[in-house]
Amino acid sequence: MRHVIYNASSELAAFVFEGFSDQDTRLIPYREMPDSWTGRVGRGVESRFPGTRLGLYPDAGTRTRLRKIAPTDVVLFFAMENLNNIASVAKYIRAQTRHVFLWNPVARIRGDLAHSRRQLHKLQQIVDAIHTFDQEDAAAYGLHFTPQPYRHVPALADAGKRHAFYFSGVDKGRLGLLLELKAAIGQLGMSAQFHVVADKGKDYAPALQAHLQAGWIPYARNLLESQHADCLVEIVQEHQSGPTLRSMEALFLQKKIVTNRLSAREDAYFDPDRVLVITRVDAAEIGAFMRRPFRPVDPALLAPHEIHTWVRRVAPLERRAAR
């Protein structure tokens, strides 16, 4: 049996596994952050004793499910990057084969790269295989390169378009490029909906503040906005070479995408009529790209990313790793 353990409080994780059904796989959702202060204290105490089961974290129901996992089963920690949480959960698991999928670049595991690398090394002592969607991280740290996961989304009954371009994300140093891109889109007479969230603790000039939002929008709304757009915008951060979730949305929702991710040209699903890779903002180039006819994505290109196929590929049952 295969067990996928994920943070039930994560909107994205909950979305990806919505409707998931596989006879060889059991999902174990758990709350990464307890609601009560006593639960949070217990979480901290449990993490300080990696070799001892204290019964403080995770919650009792989750611990019961974890104890039922057989030594011959396979476990996948999905999008769990807090080393203390993984170590605390792993204490209650007897499975000999353990995988973890990082849904962020290594550099973002912790606040600085050196600390992130130390955390990665410790994580390698807990699991058998670490998977990443980032090609450069896979090469630099000897990790398993794994495509981004996603799932099929029902088509909208109302297929009308509200805007030509759509972006949603935290600033993280990208606001300048986004504003430049938005200005070019305006020059073309097209509309752009950019939901850019301000960085915490950062002071912005009034002129920039006008382009920022106070907080995230629910993923369900983000998905709806993406479905109502002609083209999605992907602006990657420093230390990231792999595709963001925006690339998966473009692929599964059958949308064009503009990206500054140079590695996009190496994606198996790359098509210059669907994907525009930019190194600078050029309104004429963007206009020509948008005028090109859209060619639907071959369903075969979706298969490696579809969540059922993805889970079976990342955590196969036939392979056993000796610990």
Topology (elements, then pairings):
Blueprint: E1 2-7, H1 11-16, E2 25-30, H2 37-47, H3 60-67, E3 74-78, H4 83-90, E4 97-102, H5 113-123, E5 129-132, H6 135-141, E6 144-145, E7 163-170, H7 175-187, E8 192-197, H8 206-209, H9 219-227, E9 229-234, H10 245-253, E10 256-259, E11 275-277, H11 283-291, H12 299-302, H13 307-314
Helix pairs in contact: 2-4
The run of helices and strands is EHEHHEHEHEHEEHEHHEHEEHHH
Structural class: alpha/beta
How many DSSP H or I helices?
13
Question: Order of strands in the sheet with the most strands?
Answer: 2-1-3-4-5-6
Q: What is the number of strand segments?
A: 11
Low-confidence stretches: none
Oligomer classification: single chain
Give the fraction of residues assigned to helices.
25-40%
Q: Based on Cα principal axes, name the global outline.
A: globular
Largest sheet: 6 strands, parallel
Q: Write down the Rg.
A: 21 Å
What is the average of the pLDDT values? 89
Separation of termini?
18 Å
> What share of the residues does DSSP label as strand, in percent?
15-25%
